[in-house]
Amino acid sequence: MLFIRVVVFFAKLPEAYAFLSPIVDFMPVIPLLFFLLAFVWQAAVSFR
């Protein structure tokens, strides 16, 4: 019985976080932004 309740809980969980969908879609790009930030930072200090 507990197992069924846990499954139902996790089945409804995505609905609760549906408003985060645009952020989740953007998340894979975040590491690329850090790479770009490092490049811009080095350009600002003339690649010392």
Describe the secondary structure blueprint for this structure:
Layout: H1 2-16, H2 21-26, H3 30-44
What is the gist of this entry?
The protein has helices spanning 2-16, 21-26, 30-44.
Structure characterization notes:
- The longest helix is centred in the first third of the chain and has 15 residues, at 2-16.
- The model has no long low-confidence stretch (mean pLDDT 89).
- The chain is built from three helices and no strands.
- The protein is mostly helical.
- It starts with a helix and ends with a helix.
- Keywords: Membrane, Photosynthesis, Photosystem II, Reaction center, Thylakoid, Transmembrane, Transmembrane helix.
Number of helices: 3
Low-confidence stretches: none
The ordered string of helix (H) and strand (E) elements is HHH
Oligomer: single chain
N-to-C span = 63 Å
Shape assignment: rod-shaped
Number of strands: 0
Q: Gyration radius, to the nearest Å?
A: 20 Å
What integer is the average pLDDT?
89
Structural class: mainly alpha
Question: What percent of residues adopt helix (DSSP H or I)?
Answer: over 70%
Which range does the strand content fall in? Answer: under 5%
Biggest sheet features: none
Pfam family, one: PsbK
Protein name: PSII-K
Main location: membrane
GO biological process, one term: photosynthesis
